[in-house]
Amino acid sequence: MPNRLTIPLIGLSLFLSAHETARAESAHDRVALMLSGPDCPSVQKMMASTLRQQSGVLHVDTDLMPDHVLVDIVRPHLTEEELTAIANQAISGGQCRADIMKSCITAGPPVHGIDSPQSADGPAHSH
Amino acid sequence: MMTRQSQRVMTLAGATAIALAGLLGQTSSASAKTHDIHMTAVESDIVIDGGGEKYAAWTFNGTMPGPVVRVTEGDTINFTLTNPATNKNPHAMDFHAAEIDFLKNYKAINAGETISYTFVAKKPGIFFYHCGAPPMIQHVARGMFGAIIVDPKDASVWPKADREYVLVQSEYFKNPGDVQAMFDRKFDGMMFNGGIFKYHPFVTGGGKLDAKPGERVRVYFVNAGPNEFSSFHPIGEIWDNVYESGNPANKLTGVQTYVVGPGSAATFDVVVESAGAYPLVTHSLTGALRGAIAVLLASPDAKPMPLMPMVPWELPAKAK
Q1: Do the Cβ atoms of A107 and B289 come within 8 Å?
Q2: What CATH number does residue B209 fall under?
Q3: Do B180 and B289 fall within a single domain?
């Protein structure tokens, strides 16, 4: 026979779980898209403009790092893969390609309470 | 055999030399400056990442790290610490650049009290300063630390730097009240200048450090800890020179990685040869991949930057 406290405890547990899920849903990430190809300087602005119009995109930066477009997104409204596909579609036809930048300085998996900027499961370069 | 006249000349020359030496000594002493440094212990929330996460910090003057103090070898520092009555905890100040009695000068003062002391910065270098109130591990972890640069009296003892930065590494503990986690080394992030990935442009809100190709960039590096060692390395480069404790007399050349322990410091020179990105990291990867990465971006149009950029943190634009 369930204790009288069981139902309220289950309720509280479900509430906390939903709260945690909601927090995860609002996680912000920065995706670094590395551009390669001779046409990139001429199509970069067009790509940025297209990305800015996407739902789930908070901010697009084309100045901070050369040959990169930095995009702040809200997960799960937009995934890195979807973003990359949209970026490449925006510049299709020319000789420029956008790829997610992964390197030895890609941040590690999230520590509790700290949002990871990108997935860390990509290949790591040796250093 | 000496004549009376030559004896007189020698005596005169000797007297002149002594007088000149005295005068030079006076000149040297006279060129030393006195600095009145006043800091206030501030217990307040500060932003520690580009997402705007706030941390219940204890600081000097409201920033983590506290203000950079810069003096010249031989200068006198009259230091005063105020612990406002509105604070809840005792605080103190320990300058590693000072050579003075610990009991009298580094004792903790309660809220509502003030302490003053004087020291001469006798040795050049980059030195740590921190709160020493108990439990010191918590006062350091919560942000009561900073850097003091003591420039050498003779600037020609080392190459002139074209650009200078101060980087202070420290550990981030998510729960600032969990002293046991601090003793257990269970840190949740690693910070440069009080921010997680503060100078990592691939992270939300992250910035970078600028330089021009060919410039000698001098990094005054302090490891505030409280516990972890830093293995400081420039990815894509080699330190041209490393100066232990920042003293020009302690010079190493061609160094890939140099270990700076908690409570220690060193000065690092790098000349980036070509345009590109050169991340400065602790090669203790649990620290680097949790926040201790500062990307040095070399570009011909690099602009001047402050000695300690983005302190306090500039929140990222959220414009769509």
Answers
A1: yes
A2: 2.60.40.420
A3: yes
Q: Which residue of A has its CA nearest to B287?
A: A108
State whether residue A106 is helix, strand or coil.
coil
E strands of chain A, at which residues?
28-36, 57-61, 68-74, 97-100
Interface A:B, Cβ pairs < 8 A? 91
- Chain B residues lying within 8 Å of A107, measured CB to CB: 197, 200, 202-203, 289-291, 293
* pLDDT value at B102 more than 70: yes
Domain of residue A35: give its range.
Answer: 25-100
The pLDDT confidence band at residue B317, using thresholds 50, 70 and 90, is low
The confidence band for B316, taking pLDDT boundaries of 50, 70 and 90, is low
Please state the pTM of the whole predicted model.
0.84
Residue B130 and residue A8: Cα distance in Å, rounded?
48
CA gap B90, B134 in Å, rounded: 8
Flag if A65 and B208 touch (Cβ within 8 Å).
yes
Alpha-carbon gap, residue B65 to B193, rounded angstroms: 6
Check residue B11 and give its pLDDT: 45
Q: Which of these, B83, B141, B146, B149, lies nearest to B112 by C-alpha position?
A: B83
**Is residue B10, in this structure, part of any structural domain at all?**
no
Backbone angles phi, psi at B7, to 5 degrees: -65, -40
Residue B252 and residue B204 share a domain: yes
Number of domains in chain A: 1
